[in-house]
Amino acid sequence: xxxxxxTAFVTGGSVGIGRLxxxxxxxxxxxxxxxxxxADARKGTVDEIEANGGTAVETHLDLTEPASIDAAIExxxxxxxxxxxxxxxxxxxxxxxxxxxxxxxxxxxxxxINLRGAFLCTRAVIGxxxxxxxxxxxxxxxxxxxxxxxxxxxxxxxKAGLLGLTRTTAAEAGPHGVTxxxxxxxxxxxxxxxNVIDERAENSEQSRAEIVEEKEGEALTRSxxxxxxxxxxxxxxxxxxxxxxxxxxxxxxGGKIIH
Length: 259
Known about the structure:
Distance between the termini: 26 Å
Keywords: Plasmid
Low-confidence stretches: none
Shape: globular
Radius of gyration: 18 Å
Family: Belongs to the short-chain dehydrogenases/reductases (SDR) family.
Order of helices and strands: EHEHEHEHEHEHHHE
Organism: Natronorubrum aibiense
Protein name: SDR family oxidoreductase
């Protein structure tokens, strides 16, 4: 894949899927801005990229604070120039509880980080992308944004909202050479899904083993998604091969979602 973009800003770019996305884009010659709350993790990811021969810088980012988002984008642009690729990856799982037991604070926090944060980051860079006639916006949504997910109302709502943001961004920016797409992973193997399983087991009559079997069985492949597959899909959507792919919600779910 040929990725001719020069710079990328990856939110939550130092851990989990975000770290793999940062490493993957750097492997394609992109200068990556690793944006995250965790200073030690940011530095570790930058060091790993540089050890592999890539180029990266890091910046503090708190998606609950609009001023932090503006400062992070400004810092990134001062360091690397105009942002060519924005990956809105950072997010939280939110509560696993029935709707009536979900607090307003839990709802607001989940929507603030998962959806409002992506909106603010996109708003901060889209003007320059349109002005230069090139850009890639990639939102990490979820299969939960396309289906009913009991006990996960804030998370599912935030991920469905990301799909609306993706399509609107694509429509507004398309005439200017900018594409916007979402990736909808199924359950990705890692700590987050394990925590969700633990919480569901605590709040339901199902055992942990039953929940794992159920979740794996939802995919046609009968397995969780490999996080490296998400990173590879991000790189694909940033490549020259996808200039006419925009406004899409691409499933990487092992067949859990097929629409």
